[in-house]
Specification:
single chain; 15 helices
Amino acid sequence: MAPFVRILAGVLLAGAGLASAQAVDTPLAATTAPIVYSAEVDSIIHPVSAEYMIETMDRADEAGAVLVVFTLRTPGGLVDSTRTIVTHMLAAKTPVAVFIGPSGARAASAGFILTIAADVAAMAPGTHIGAAHPVAGNGEKMDETMAKKAAEDIAAYVRTLATTRQRNVTLAEQAVNESRAFTEGEARAASPPLVDLIASDVTDLLHQLDGRSVRRFDGKEVVLKTAGAQVVPVAMNLRQRILSTIANPNIAYLLMSLGMLGLTIELWSPGAILPGVVGGVSLLLAFFALQLLPVNYAGVLLILLGLLLLVLEIKVTSFGLLTVGGLASLIFGSMILMDSSLPELQLNLWYVLPVVMGFGGIAMLLVRLGVKALRQPAATGEVDMLDRIGQALTALGPDEPGRVAVRGEIWQATAAEAIPEGAAVRIVKVDGLTLTVRKK
């Protein structure tokens, strides 16, 4: 299911992605200045951000750049995507620098691993890295054995990277096994250090790197010449920006809610088409986003239960109990949907409440309309004919049946009293196709 959703979501947005591009590639042949590619990664590490970073490194290799600088701000991400980026980073022809900035930023979990793996690791003042202990991809707690295996696997991976990059292996391992985090001063002052430089911004970083010898992962020494470098900023293309945006927990939640609402409306009013189409597309995009996030499937089930209870309220007389239960289920399901201690990966209550209240309002409106319809008199059959006013087309009497016109129809009729032709009559009884009337 997950690969299918990813492929379909990519196809839906591919057209927009083809029209965008967008590393700001200036004509490189027109200058002899060294070229530095610069990209900002301000998101969780997932397949979209991995694609973006890999494309940036490939462009730098093709352009013969002297350095790629990734300005990194991330709460963490997926291990598979992190390994993919690191593998490409180690094999890239162009040296890669990871800069944690600006001041106040952090690179936790997956961001810490990317920093350790880079040819150059730098931090801005007031930043921190670390807390790289792994958690389950679906947000659920792992049992002790699985947690230990996962932690040991990541710890070994980080030790390998730190050893080859000649960085502090002990602290790198503690960041995984003990979830330790380090300020820029602690990371730089360690012996050996975790990071190479402290710089205020990318310009300062390039100034400090000029003439610096960097040891690549394969052991080769490269002297960086960044003085007067032409910095080429690389931005995500439109497709990547859209997919990266919907990987936000709040956006994914809104898409999921919109999708379920659209499909519910389509089920209530078959043939409306538009709600079904919008709902289906929104759900597919939501599924794409949710597979990148630490989702608690108990929360998903509670949300589905809440919607089911709201739908049943329309069919079952519960005097509002099903609506109350449905709203409670929606609220609790929404609050535990994202099982993460990171604020960036949690749902905002101000997103949840309007959605839940919106569903509740729609359900209450439909219930009100249903109750109103039940209280109205029947619009067909014998009950609907009683007390209707018509006109005698012929004279009527106890022994003289005739015809009357009611609602544009002509009926056979009898009367217990004499009624002249053309008089207004009221229907008092319906016997098959014969009416009993009396003079109005």
